[in-house]
Amino acid sequence: MARSKSAKRSFWDQWVKWLKDERVSKIAAMSSFMGAIYLLISFISYLSTWKADQDKVLALSWRILFKSGSEVGNWLGRLGALSSHFFFYYGFGIACFLLIPVIVHLGFRFLKRSGWLGLLRYSTHTLMIMALLSMILDFILQDQGFPYGGSFGSRTNDLLSNFVGEVGLGVTLIFSLISFIIWFFNPSLQKLQFQTLGGSESDSFLDWSNAFKWNNNSNPSADNALTPNEIYLKNKAAANQSAGIEVDFGDFAENAGLAATIGSKADQIINPFGPSLEIETIAPSESITTKDPEQSESRPSYQPVPDEEDGWHDESHTGPYDPRADLSTYVIPSLDLLNDYSDQKFEIDRSELESNKNQIIATLLNYKIEIQKIKATIGPTVTLYEIVPAPGVRISRIKSLEDDIALSLSAQGIRIIAPIPGRGTIGIEVANKNKQMVPLKELLKSDRFNDQKMELPIALGKNISNEVVVADLTKMPHLLIAGATGQGKSVGINTILMSLLYKKHPAEVKLVLIDPKKVELPIYSVIEKHFLAQLPNQDEAIITDTSKVIYTLNSLCIEMDQRYELLKMARVRNLLEYNDKFVNRRLNPQKGHRYLPYIVLIIDEFADLIMTAGKEVELPIGRLAQLARAVGIHLIIATQRPSVKIITGLIKANFPGRIAFKVSSNIDSRTILDCGGAERLIGRGDMLYSVGSDMIRLQCAFVDTPEVERVITHIGNQRSYGEPYYLPEYKGDEADGAENSIVADDLDEMFEEAARLVVQSQHGSTSMIQRRLKLGYNRAGRIMDQMEALGIVSSGEGSKPREVLLFNEIELENLLQKFKRKT
């Protein structure tokens, strides 16, 4: 046993002695230098030979070293190709060049046989820089084909983007780069600031604070003579003085009894439950409409002089043209066909108002928030409590107590508006225990709905002040409706349709109704030959089949183009001017001119169309939304799944008019309205209506199905035109040129797997196909070109990933089957 220990000690001593030999250190140093030179040559060669070598290395891996007949382009042969591919493709990409200084540094350490701690620090810093550089290069140049950031940068970026998103990843990389610069160079920003401004540190502070003078009448020399504390007190006093001019807080404090005297303790509050409640109600007869900066008169302000050759000279017709003449016996439905729901009376519960007021005040006081005045405005379904906070109270503090106030009131649908635009108060909306129904009949009788200046009035409902809200569809010009199932979306569509039927003659407006669910709109088929528009030879008046929907939308695009051509010939800008010119017989029908009715397209469940048809529906919808306003074609689309894949940026940009019924989450609310709030509605017709920058809360008008049936039956029993309004015939392309450029046999063996990967990830990137399927650059590029030819991805735009044109695998399978049948 002792002999064994002695032998081990002797071997270890000899090994240590051998390591201390100067010759070993020199050989190790020379090996390091040679290794650095070898890597430098192989790396430089890789920059020009990687395309030719990548497929071979990926296919054979380390076996390429022993594979006879494998010719590579790297200057250092198969080992150079394998090593450079390993460092670039599976490592850090371009940042791997930073390994060479580390190896050279190691060689010098062997020569000096000292400084190993410095080598460790140098290597650690270099590794951190390589990691950051790899991520930055992959983020900027991820779709160039060449592995600029390597697998480390790509996979690390993918992992981070799943947590913080693409924008968050970019911000993180910028922050990391700045942090590295500060850590390694430690720049003196404070010293730089003082040197730029000049003077001492205290003088520089004063000069910087005085550099931004908004009042040209101020005296800089007087302010410079003050200390920073005196300047702060002076500004604070000026702010208090200006606040006192704008709002008479003293009067509010006297009425409320909540103001504390100057110099008293913070916890001494006079009459904590003292503010008197002012109740404000507005008579139901009063009405309001939405604001529209572009609203103009219903008739053109000028009368252009027509050319004589365009004039309609007909001796048998001397007066203006009457578009209603062909159906002159038509009678607009009577309001007696609708219910007034007078049996459901709404009474103000004074005790409920006082209780809610006291609970709101008590909850705010628990968090040491004083208020000076509170006022209640009673609406059909919610009551708005307007409060004026005491001076110095931050609005954000009240906004953060939304859930606490809801808990104290035990009420559904608490929503805080902080502040209310144009009023200088903070609003707290609380749902009423006894809710009032808003019958459509009451809205249709209002003066605002019967205003002759509105071309296509839509009776939406009543706002929180019990005022009637009517919108003009021609001023929107398109409307997006979204909300969860059973929250009033279908009733809202019926309200819109009934508003149009009660306002317009069949010659003035035509409806295109699309109902993929097949159960909501079929009752309107009774008025097919009065108000509906459809394709020739269409079996059903209400469009339910997806293929017919595509044809109908493209037919509307043709109708739009034809109308624009008529406007061009008539030298007018919009439908209103065109019809006015035609009615006054200043356009010749023999040259193709005709009276153009408004066309309103209504889609009841837009999400179902997008999921089944995708771009075939979205593209014509987007084109109509962008261009159809001037020619009198207006769109109303509704969906119960407000996701970003359904309500895309193109849809939102061209649908400024939006209605959100109750939704399940704040994300859905932001998808519809670009802000939260719809998730806190109480349902059953409670909605938020947004047009432009204005947003108001409404109770949607109610019309029951029996009422709708009575109205359309009244219309259907009258004399009709004998046939619907026919849209232009559309013939779909029998063959797609892009698809015919390739056949099924030309597709790569990995094409379908790559296409599924791209559709699943919704990321059209050649580098991703390379990494995930272990393909070379050339092969992955060919597959991406084939996907572009089949319409799976868009064309390339530089270094940006390609847009994926299909939303799910169902669309992909349908496309592939269609392609295989054609070829």
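^ that was protein a. below is b, sequence first then the tokens
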Amino acid sequence: MRFLKNRITISLVVIFGAAYAWEFYIRPSTGVLYTAAVSEYQNRNYDRSLELLRKAYRIDPNDSAMLRLLGWNYLKKGAYPEAVANFSRALRLNPKLDDARMGLAYCWLEMGETRKALEYFQQLPAADQRSPEIRTAMARAYRLLGDNQTALQLAMGVLRENKEDKLARKELAFLTGSEDPEAVEATRAESLPRPSSLIVPARARNESFEILQDGGWKRVYLAGVNLTPAVPGHFPSDPPNEVTVYLDWLSQIRAMGANCVRVYTLLPPAFYRALMAYNAEHAQSPVYLLQQVWLDDAPDGNLFNQAFTAHYEKAIYKVVDAVHGQANLPFEKGRGGGIYFADVSRFVVGWLVGRDIEPHVVVTTNLRNPGIQSYAGRYLTIENGNPTEVWLTRQCDAVVRYEVEKYNWQRPVAFVDWAPLDPLTHSTESRMVEEIVMRQKLGEKSLPLLSAPVDDDDAASLDPTKLKPTAAFSAGLFAAYSVYPYYPDFMDLDPHYLEGQDSQGPSSFVAYLEDLRRYHKDMPLLVAEFGIPSSLGISHFNPAGWNEGGHTEAQQGEYLARMIRSIFETGCAGGLVESWLDEWYRQNWLVRDFELPGGRTRLWLNTLSPEANQGLVGFRPSRGETHLLNGDAGRWQPSQLFYQKAPGAPVVRSFGDSYDAARHLLRLFVDSDEAYLYLRLDVERLDNDGDGTPDWKEANYLFTFGTTVEPTGSVLLPFVSNVRIPSGADYVLRLGEGDQSKILLASVYNPYKLVPVAGIPEQTQLRYRIPFLPSLAEEAQFDEMLVEPNRRRYGRDGHMYPPVRYSRSPLKWGTLEPGSPDYNTLAEWYASPKANMIELRIPWGLLQVADPSSLQVLAGIDRSGTFYTETTEGLQVAVVSYRPQTQELADVLPRFRPPGIIAAEDLKRFKWAPWESVTVATYLKDSYYVVQRALQELRSPRKAERARAAVPKGRKRP
């Protein structure tokens, strides 16, 4: 899609071709249509231009001028296969048409057929190839093919002629991280001479990290963040390439009080340029870097696969070269590429090898390589290790060895570990095989079949204390763990951890850290990843409230602050928050099945997904700064008016009391964006008894939604007597007193069912209905939207831990107006008596909209358990007001037909426009400022000393 915004303006080429074709090719019968199509194309009305061309095509399908213009229109719209078909046909009719050849080159470039694109570019006349536009496009092609030097030569050639050429500057940024050709020239360097003596800029020693500063060693506590630079609309494989973006982030990170950033893989050159530039201006307070070398999935789960190991070692060498500013790397999906000139090696405090490896990979590797238990490297050794530990030791040794041999530098190293693979034993965790045996003994039928690898959380371990440095390795080893307060389940179930206390109350997190710290003794322990989400949805519960989701931004910050203090107080060497940015693309296990197609999650925000809402920096969707649920009618546009009562139209039924005005519906507005469906309901008067609040005891409101193309849901509505929607309601949303405000799902559109456990009928389990096909029922039950974040589990002693379920149906009250007493970043609705309006924002996920960007809604589950979707024709919406005591209808939008019908012909569908790109506003969450205060406290020597002195001493595991 970048072509549609950034590639050359081809209008002049087409217009010239059109004039030539007019004189020599076009028949008079199609000339008027063609001329009009050219005009529409020039005005960027591509759909209208195509409409005219199709009419002309029916008259003369062999006109090459029309075929070319069809191709350019399709190209502009991003319909590349259609463009290719028309350009190719035009060339077959007339092989001399260079503009068609040019169009094909751009099509193949956008479609990833880079060699084909380059072939077509090279077939163009020499004059065309010398144009800045074509040279820049060819630079992109060479870059994608891994020939960075040729790409750089082409881009720099364009910029020497015009240093303001926007496209060439962008291409230069992809290649080098900078849009400035003079800056690139200034930093281009030959290979640096290898120092004669070993340089150690950082070391791990005495439970801490130390930095070489002014000739001496200075202890540094690493407080930082994890950075995955995937902004909305993009995957991590397509990160920003602008130095300014990374400079802004680094400035905000340092202003928060953090001094370290961890990156999971090699980032684009722009990041390292930004780090070098920032630290050059902030020499007394730099941002340090923990650089990880990402580990892909091993073939068949065996890390010792020879080709896999060789590929990973090459990845290690590339990363080491890049941080030393000595790399020219082809672009790889999910990894950085380009020409790395920025030498940031003095700011790298440690290498991280691997990733949070799944337990089944460790089990598989160990089983397939049973004889491998030791390794003696030049810098690291291991004895009596399991095969996976040995493999990781080899890779850690490879990092150190390569950096010393090529650059004579050395720094601390660790492999990435996490709680499921810690070296501790957790009795509340049983392997799935063990659990199945227990369940079978209890009489359970229909037990799961273990056909796929199972990731048991205490079935294997990785122990960093087994790694030993040789005399040649002075930088030292450290342990790096990902630790979360809600996962694995032993954090929620182990009695010892549940007894944990920090200064603010119960904390399994601090108890676990104490155990981990004791086990690792003198080795520096880095909590390389910890966090808690600010999502509406919850995917795991913790008894003390440290849940995976369900927290406001302020609550997220308070929990993070507690974790920050606990990490420091338990004697760890540092801690890094996960994560800096909200990551829209990430999918959570509890919502993944409902996000279809999954590859489009980057284009919309699912607030039910904790993983997508874990950052300190958020991204407001396009309407997020407009609809603040604050009663401001001026923020709504006339174009968003959906239904309106005729002036003077009365309520459907008057009860003759003073609350008729509360039941009188006037207008409904509807809007949407990348995260929510927004609604605004205007009534005559919300507060009729003068108590300053809406008259919930006398007036309730019921919104109905139909999402599918065919009629589904319930014809008869709940809560209000004898009101029918023949086309069906899939959802109803009730607004009333207290906890009565909920969104409910028609049972015939509910993919879940609660069933007894076969053989143990006193227990129940929440399962998908397989197969599931939504249907229309005269009177369907409306269900709470129940999910099960914590499944039923069994400890090794046979103790059963029941499942934990919750309903997503209750709606959270509040406003998004900071400073208001009702401020709540999770708010879903708000009623303003002053403005006589009710506002709602409903997350797409609560309506089972599987992908709002392509209008996909849940359509069913087939017999194999595969979820499938359909393209909606829009959401069918109606609103009813009623007396809650008697359930008698009062009023209806759009209209009411006797006897008690809201007819399909009266109902409108709200259909929003699909999208392929995202417009968002970046903001610092409330949690950022809470974390900032917590880190400021750590920087106060007296407060820090008091905090360390307060650490409980001598507590042992029972």
